[in-house]
Design a protein that fits this description.
7-stranded mixed beta sheet
Length: 114
């Protein structure tokens, strides 16, 4: 069993930045993929970014060039650096770990004001 705890959300002005963190309850070095998803009211959960155990990253077109996913295995943490935020980035952001089973955090709310 793995617990994931997200933090770093809040209210940000458009054009600003925020960094989300997701801390795991055990080593993440063997996790196949770590992902960030987001979901806004009335919309489906969408994949924002992913990073493999080998460090390969992938991004949704809507965030490419603005968001950066990274991982620090020593700190059991995956990050999502979000720059040039837009009001349409407002959502609840969830951390996901594929480590055999699929694990989810509870999410952290990011609200971008115009």
């Amino acid at each position: 069993q793995v617990q994931l705890v997200e933090s770093g959300g809040g209210l940000v002005q458009a054009g600003g930045s925020a960094r989300l963190s997701c801390v795991a309850s055990r080593s993440i070095s063997s996790f196949n993929i770590l992902r960030w998803y987001r979901q806004s009211p009335g919309k489906q959960r969408e994949l924002v970014a992913s990073i493999t155990s080998g460090g390969h990253t992938n991004y949704a077109d809507s965030v490419k060039g603005r968001f950066t996913i990274s991982r620090d295995n020593a700190k059991l943490t995956v990050y999502l650096q979000m720059d040039s935020l837009k009001p349409e980035d407002t959502a609840r952001y969830y951390c996901n770990a594929l480590a055999g089973p699929n694990y989810w955090g509870q999410g952290t709310q990011v609200t971008v004001s115009s």
